[in-house]
Amino acid sequence: MNKRVEKLNRLKAHYRRSRESFDRWRASGYPHYAKPSHEPLPQDLADMRCEAITRAGIPCKRKDIYSNGRCKYHGGMSTGAKTPEGKARQLEGYRRWQERRRQVTITAQDMS
Predict the structure, then answer these.
(1) For the residues of 85-111, what is the DSSP string, one character each?
(2) Span 50-64, mean pLDDT?
(3) pTM of this structure
(4) Closest among 30, 64, 36, 34 to 50, alpha carbons compared
(5) Which residues contact 8 (CB under 8 A, 6 or more apart)?
(6) Burial bucket for residue 7 (CB in 10 Å: 0-12, 13-18, 19+)
């Protein structure tokens, strides 16, 4: 296993432990006296970079990476629905949003 994959696995484990600690605290009702201690990021993981290949052809140098190992620009936001059912659901939601916008505009025009 290469070093980056090993570091990413350790980073994911760190985030998982932090999340579990917070979830336990939340389940107990957020008592201030039982606030979970902050586990610092291990020093060798602090300098990890995104390393996604940019349009310029060089690796991304951002250090603020998520648990998937990529920055906010290369992290893989949703690319939208892929199935026909999902696309239809998106279209229906968009149409509902458009109708709400029209109603707000009509209401605002009636008031003025």
Answers:
(1) HHHHHHHHHHHHHHHHHHHHHHHHHHH
(2) 90
(3) 0.58
(4) 64
(5) 48, 68, 69
(6) middle
